[in-house]
Design a protein that fits this description.
The structure is a homodimer. The first copy, chain A, is mostly beta strands. Chain A has one domain: Electron Transport, Fmn-binding Protein, Chain A (Pnp Oxidase, Chain A), CATH 2.30.110.10. In chain A, the strands form four sheets. Chain A has a seven-stranded antiparallel beta sheet with strand order 4-3-7-10-11-6-5. A three-stranded antiparallel beta sheet of chain A has the order 2-14-15, with no helix packed on it. In chain A, strand 5 and strand 6 form a beta hairpin. The two termini of chain A are 20 Å apart. Chains A and B meet through strand 1, strand 2, strand 5, strand 6 and helix 2 of A and strand 1, strand 2, strand 5, strand 6 and helix 2 of B.
């Protein structure tokens, strides 16, 4: 028997990202957990229009998505609590660039991506950005056989109900495999 | 020092959902981990155009998002491995409805949502759907003080690199709070 909870978004947890863009010629960052995947190389960002970072994404049509690990929880939350309108966030991280001049990536994040904007859907309160990954960068310490290993990355998972960051647990089963054990309804 | 990995989507893990829609008058389901949040009540689905379920979402402009728990990993993976074009998936789950007649929800999932389609962006290989949550339903056993408790829900997290489902770990820190400990770059 289910309880009706009104109209609550329950699609959690999602991985926490720090989004980077260039605003007025300087790197700016925002912590965003309202992210998603649109297709194999496509990433969505649901960003409240109040964010200064949105201006940079719209102006340059590029951005970065950086994945903080558990040991970055304090700075990640800080970047999510202060606006670039009130505090210059350009000096918080060491920044590097790949192919795109206006997609500042964060050296301290062990996995980073640079993206070009392919779609911008204006919703009443939010900008929904869809970007396509142009380049992906990872520290050697989070790779296993050349592939990103999330058990080594230790990403920060975000949940709105608890208003907490959560850690990743253990692997449970193989996708496109464990389903072969299905024996019928 | 970072390794360049080409253009890999590294935005994982994301929560695994079973999406429901009505196709030819019957419930159809697809397992989708390429999900996201667009705004407080907005959910994105990045669904390959090959999915039969997409036809139902486009025809009725409604769908459901159901969250399977760890104990549903076999059936969840099964639903992701077979197409409704080859197998009638209408009998796999017990189905119930909320306010929307064409958004079949799954009784076996402890958290479910019914949504109306508000945006449909056609990408080359994928439909990007944006839905708005109309109603949310949860089993009492996953609530704490009336709010969804993901530690009780035990959602299935999906990661593409490992091609595995992962469990949720422990809570790490409070959002919009732990960042107050930040002492500067």
């Amino acid at each position: 028997m289910k309880e009706k909870l009104g109209a609550t978004n329950a699609l959690y947890p999602l991985v926490t990202a720090i989004v980077g863009a260039t605003v007025d010629g300087k790197p700016d960052f925002a912590t965003i957990a309202h992210v998603g995947i649109a297709h194999l190389k496509g990433i969505t960002l649901g960003m409240g229009k109040i964010h200064l970072t949105n201006d940079g994404i719209k102006a340059n049509r590029t951005f970065s998505v950086n994945l903080p690990s558990e040991d970055m929880v304090v700075v990640t939350d800080h970047v999510g609590m202060v606006s670039g309108r009130n505090e210059d966030k350009s000096g918080i991280f060491d920044v590097f660039y790949g192919e795109l001049d206006t997609a500042p990536m964060i050296e301290q994040c062990k996995v980073t991506m640079e993206l070009k904007l392919i779609e911008h859907i204006e919703l009443p309160t939010h900008d929904l950005f869809v970007g396509e990954v142009v380049g992906t960068y990872a520290d050697l310490e989070v790779l296993t056989n050349g592939i990103i290993d999330i058990a080594k990355l230790r990403p920060l998972l975000f949940d709105m109900s608890s208003k907490k960051y959560w850690s990743l647990g253990a692997p449970l089963a193989k996708c496109w495999s464990v389903g072969k054990e299905y024996a019928g309804a």
